[in-house]
Amino acid sequence: MRTPILAGNWKMYKTVAEAKSLVSESKDDLLAVSGVDKVFCPPFLAVPAVAELVAGTALGVGAQDMYWEDEGAYTGEVSPLMAKEFCQYVIIGHSERREYFGETDADVNKKIKAALRHGLTPIVCVGESLEIRQAGDTERWVTEQVRGAVADLTGEQVAGLVFAYEPIWAIGTGLAATPQDAEHVCGSVVRATVREMYGAQVAEAVRIQYGGSIKPGNALDLMSQPNVDGGLVGGASLQAADFVAIVRHTAEAKGTA
Question: Within 10 A of 69 (CB to CB), how many other CB atoms are there?
C-alpha cells in the first residue's frame, strides 16, 4: 500500500521568522497524524531553520527547486549537495518554473537524475494549461511530460519518485479539478504511462499527488480517489490550521487515521 504524502509548497512566502512560527504552530498536530508523510517546502533561506525545528521527527523538508550540477559558476543556483544537507525531497519542474523560468522537460530530467544521485526524492510536477485542457489535449501533454521526466531512468528509480499532477489552470485560482478529473489524470494518464514504460509493479509503487487549490473543504473528496496518493498544497499550506486539516482528511480518506 502506498503511503500518502502531503507536501506544502510555500513558494515565495514566509521570512525565516514567519517560517519558524508556522512550523512551530503546526508541528505537534501534524505529528499526531499517523500513516501520512508530511513535508514542508519553504523558500531556500528558511530551509535550514525549518530543518532544525523538525530534526529527529517524522516531518520532512523539501527544496522548491535545485540545479543539476554539484557546484560551479552558476550564480543564484542551489546544488543538490547544498539541498541534501537539510532536505529529503525536492520539487522539480513546477509549472511556475516552466512558465516563468523556461524549464524544459530535458531540464527536469537532468534535475531528477541529480536529485536521485544524491539521495533526494524528487516531487516531479506535470500538468496542463487551460488552453491545452480546452483543446482536449491534456492526456497527450501530460503523457509527454511524464515520458520526458523519466527518460533513461531505471524502474527502481521511477518507483521511488513522487509525481504531482498540477493542472496549471487550478493553481492559485480557486478553481480545482473535480475528484473525478484528478483521479483520471493521476491514474489513467500518469500511472498508466509509468505502467506502459516500466510495468505494473513500478506503476503501483509510484506515488502521485494532486495539486491545485486543495483546501480543507475539498481535500476529503480528492484524497478518497484511489490513484491520488496525497497532495502538493500551495496557498493552504501557508495556514497551519488548513494544512493540518488537509493532512487529517487525507489520513481519514486513506484509512490511516
Answer: 14
Helix (H) or strand (E) holding 8: strand 5-9
Whether 130 shows a pLDDT value over 90: the answer reads no
| Residue that the C-alpha cell 508523510 belongs to | 37
User: Does the active-site annotation cover 184?
Assistant: no
Query: Phi, psi at residue 13, to the nearest 5°?
Result: -130, 155
Q: What are the phi and psi torsion angles at 77 (to 5°)? A: -95, 160
Residue 138 corresponds to which amino acid? Answer: T
Domain boundaries, the chain: 5-254
Tell me which of 96, 103, 166, 183 is the catalytic residue: 166
Report whether 226 contacts 182 (CB < 8 A). Answer: no
Structure confidence by residue, pLDDT tens digits, 81-106: 999 999 999 999 999 999 999 999 99
- pLDDT digits over 40-72, tens only? 999 999 999 999 999 999 999 999 999 999 999
* pTM across the whole model: 0.97
Domain 5-254 has CATH 3.20.20.70: yes
Q: Looking at 94, 103, 128, 249, which residue is catalytic?
A: 94
Catalytic, 166? Answer yes
Single-letter amino acid code for the residue at 247: V
